[in-house]
Amino acid sequence: DVRKTYENHYTVTDLAENTGGPARYVRLEETGQKIGFITPLSHNFCESCNRVRITCTGEIFMCLGQEDVADLRAPLRNHPDDDAPLKDAIRAAINLKPKGHDFDYSRQKLDGQMPRHMSHTGG
């Protein structure tokens, strides 16, 4: 556990700070450094998640723990002078955000290989 490792060397103080994302923040008192922990397995934050990822190729991923994706290229290309189709596509994608994730990849039958690493979409 990463937090326990820090606690073995520093005084770790929980902070009430909330940036609107999934991280829970602590301060290392000896250094003043602030660290955010994102713990999807021990602290499921899905219900309050307000994040999506849009890639440079026009795909929008609603959750880093799922493979669901929507394509924003078609409304951009097919309606260059009208933002309404793009806005509709984004709203439709966000409505598909799951209520939970499955970060336990052993249940996803991936045979030891993830089809899309979080780092590919900015997570």
Query: What are the secondary-structure elements, in order, as H or E?
Result: HEEEEEEHH
Structurally, the number of domains stands at 2
Provide a count of the helices.
Answer: 3
Strand order of the largest sheet: 1-2-3
Our estimate of the beta-strand percent is: 15-25%
List keywords for this structure.
21% helix; elongated; three-stranded antiparallel sheet; 2 domains; 3 helices; single chain; 123 residues; alpha+beta; 6 strands
Structure explained in plain terms:
The protein has 2 domains: 2-37, no CATH class; 51-121, no CATH class. It contains 3 helices and 6 strands. It has helices spanning 2-9, 73-78, 84-95; strands at residues 12-14, 24-28, 33-37, 53-54, 59-61, 69-71. The chain has a 3-stranded antiparallel beta sheet, covered by helices on one side. Strands 4-5-6 form a 3-stranded antiparallel beta sheet. The mean pLDDT is 83.
Write a concise synopsis of the structure shown.
The chain has 123 residues and is an alpha+beta fold. Helices cover 21% and strands 17% of the residues.
Secondary structure topology:
Elements: H1 2-9, E1 12-14, E2 24-28, E3 33-37, E4 53-54, E5 59-61, E6 69-71, H2 73-78, H3 84-95
Antiparallel strand pairs: 1-2, 2-3, 4-5, 5-6
